[in-house]
Amino acid sequence: MKAPAPDWSELPVDIMCDVLKLLECPDLVRSAAVCRLWYNAYSMARRIGICLSHQTPCLLYCTESSGLKALGMYSLSERKAYTIPLPEPPILNWIGSSHGWLVTMDQKSELMLLNPITGNMIALPPVTTMEHVKPLLNDDGVLEQYEVSYYDGEIPRVEDGRGTFSLDKYGDLVYLKATLSRDPLVGECIVMLIHEPYMQLSFAKVGDTHWNWLNMHSYYSDCIYHDGWFYAMADEGAIDAYNLNGPSVTHKRLLPKILRTLSKCHIVQAGWGDVLQIIRKETFNCEQPEGRKYVTEFQVYKVDFDEKKRVKMTGIGDHALFVGKSTTSCDEA
């Protein structure tokens, strides 16, 4: 007599979670459709975030044929492309991604969190609640433009004029990068935004009604969240640390400046857990009429938090480093 086939639908949820965390994103989503028990295990795995660290990165891109209605997603593990429909309102751009969410902006440059797999969207506080922004209304009282005042955290305050931006162009010209402290469905999530003027920082907790400006006199180019702190790349390679979890902001200068040449700096948490500082050295080609910049060298340093120092690295083992405008990652190859 043939033995009955094992009934996978009756596995305990905790064991199912251990299985699901090994799946790649497409298979993980498919598992939720097997039965109610598997859906419950899938929901728990997403809620506690056990799947994110094991995922092979997917490439997200726009296509001319889909326009603003869908994204293309290429699965490196499956070597297969997917089309992901986008919810309304239309998305014009995204300025960062972390914990499976994109930080996107709509046609009025309002920011939203979007999970491209589930379609979940979470609105962030309005543009007009940012420190430097004033709404400009037409004769009918309808928002028409954003006015931006140019000043930073220097005391006494010096305002270097004002500029006006159309609603749809404001985000492209002002937003530089955004990152999240955690998956907003898991617990309290803080969004850190690097923006103009002068590459400053503002943050908001999901559910807040306004943005909070960090009035520091510095220029920031990159930021990550690690062990309860936001670490921001300041001008000339310095690293500032911000703790936003208490009733007041805690700020400290973790590492001093190291650069006096034309370079860009990035900060990233590697797949093995260390935080890395990436220095991208650039040079101008004076023979080009537009003075184009070219990358001449990458330097990688491990950030030693205990000793408060940088340790130069000669390699990153079996990991690959991706350096982008809005996202930098270091993942197992």
TrEMBL record:
Domain annotation F-box: ranges: 8-41
All copies of domain KIB1-4 beta-propeller, residue ranges: 73-330
InterPro entries: F-box-like_dom_sf, F-box_dom, KIB1-4_b-propeller
Domain of life, source organism: Eukaryota
Protein name stated in the entry: F-box domain-containing protein
